[in-house]
Write a structure and sequence with these properties.
The termini are far apart. With about 425 residues, the chain is of the alpha+beta class.
């Protein structure tokens, strides 16, 4: 190995370097200032910067000759000498810069890409339904706003933008969406893709941002049909032929929720009692529904279906879609602006305006919890027998011709 003085610089000439590389003779030739040309065979040559740290010699590659010219190698060596004078190890500095670049690049990973990875990593532990719900809620609510945003850049304002439209109208959905965003961003923090507090955490600031002007939850009134029009609506409904039509009529007559009806099974019907299991009830408790003769007639009109569902869907083995009745309302009926859930309000308004059935009886029919202390005694049973005449009266009203007067046994219920 040729040696040069420590003060020597730019010893090699470009032609000399080209010749050494061309001949391919193995050599290690200094250019001065710690820069060396290393030739390991024909065409195989690279630049090396050699220096000492704490008495130990270190060799740092500056790149192959085919990519780095002599002039470029000298500039790289000069930069290394500047670092050494500052007490910095060039190799350690290079590794630090690369690590920073990798972290910076990683932080550009979008929320959607990380969320997909999060779901995929846990699918083997989750049910197919749970995985699908995760993907669907994020696709519907989160991705349109933060799907393509780097996880390191997501802030609380964006999370609030996602949640605010559904915070009061779809409480359970909003709760799940917020929790799922929080989990994905927790994962991002664990992977060092973001720093600081999780913007999806239910912090006091988030609660404040999600409050409305009155600092309280506004009641949400879903579009309901006036009860005076229910007979004409059902008359029009019976002109349809699809299974969704029968499901909707059954929903109206029982004042039940969509999810309770579409997933109803034949085994849940025993005589004139429909028992809805707890896992399908919003309250988390099973609920018995006394079926009026009109509701039983709807079940009699159902075609013979194989399988367990009362209202089967198009796919074999599936129940009716949760959008089937709403689609019927929006696309096949000439009654714009009303919702399936709104028929529960129609029933409740009818009870209040046209009967004297006790408030608690109507609330029990809707499977609402009874919170008034004066009605605490009623909580011990579901008041099934008291609800029977009310549901028969409701069915009679639903089937009464427009303008007719229906006798209301419920008027006698005020003294019960």
């Amino acid at each position: 190995m040729v040696r040069v003085s420590k003060s020597a610089r730019n010893v090699l000439a470009a032609k000399t370097v080209a010749h050494l590389v061309k001949t391919g003779e193995r050599c290690f030739v200094p250019d001065g200032g710690g820069l060396y040309l290393q030739v390991g065979g024909a065409g195989a040559a690279s630049w090396i910067f050699r220096y000492t740290v704490n008495g130990k010699q270190r060799w740092m590659g500056l790149g192959p000759y085919v990519d780095v010219s002599l002039a470029q190698a000298r500039e790289l060596a000069r930069e290394c000498r500047v670092l050494r004078r500052a007490g910095i190890d060039p190799i350690a500095e290079k590794q630090s810069v690369r690590a920073t670049e990798r972290r910076s690049a990683a932080k550009q990973r979008t929320f959607k890409s990380l969320a997909n990875e999060y779901i995929e990593a846990r699918e083997h532990k989750w049910s197919a339904k749970h995985s699908a719900q995760w993907a669907a809620t994020l696709e519907t609510y989160a991705y349109p706003i933060i799907g393509n945003v780097p996880v390191g850049s997501i802030g609380i304002d964006q999370v609030v933008e996602i949640l605010k439209p559904i915070w009061h109208s779809k409480e359970e959905t909003a709760r799940r969406v917020r929790g799922r965003i929080e989990k994905v961003l927790d994962e991002a923090q664990a992977l060092e893709l973001r720093e600081g507090e999780n913007p999806a955490a239910l912090s006091p600031r988030m609660k404040k941002l999600l409050q409305d002007d009155l600092q309280q939850k506004r009641p949400v009134h879903l579009a309901a049909l006036p009860y005076q029009q229910i007979n004409q609506f059902v008359t029009d409904l019976r002109e349809k032929t699809e299974v969704a039509r029968l499901a909707l009529e059954f929903t109206i007559l029982t004042a039940a929720r969509t999810g309770e009806v579409i997933a109803a099974t034949k085994s849940e019907i025993a005589g004139d009692i429909w028992t809805i299991p707890a896992d399908r009830m919003k309250s988390g408790f099973s609920h018995r529904v006394p079926l009026s003769q009109a509701a039983l007639d709807v079940l009699e009109r159902l075609p013979e279906f194989e399988g367990k569902w009362l209202f089967p869907g198009h796919k074999a083995g599936s129940h009716l879609s949760n959008m089937a009745m709403l689609t019927l309302l929006k696309k096949r009926m000439s009654w714009p602006g009303i919702t399936v859930h709104g028929f529960r309000s129609t029933f409740r308004d009818w009870v209040a305006d046209q009967t004297t059935y006790a408030n608690v009886v109507a609330e029990k029919a809707l499977a609402h919890s009874v919170g008034d202390k004066t009605e605490a005694a009623y909580r011990r049973n579901d008041m099934l027998q008291r609800r029977r005449p009310m549901m028969e009266d409701w069915a009679r009203y639903v089937n009464s011709k427009k303008g007719s007067v229906v006798s209301m046994p419920g008027k006698a219920a005020s003294n019960e």
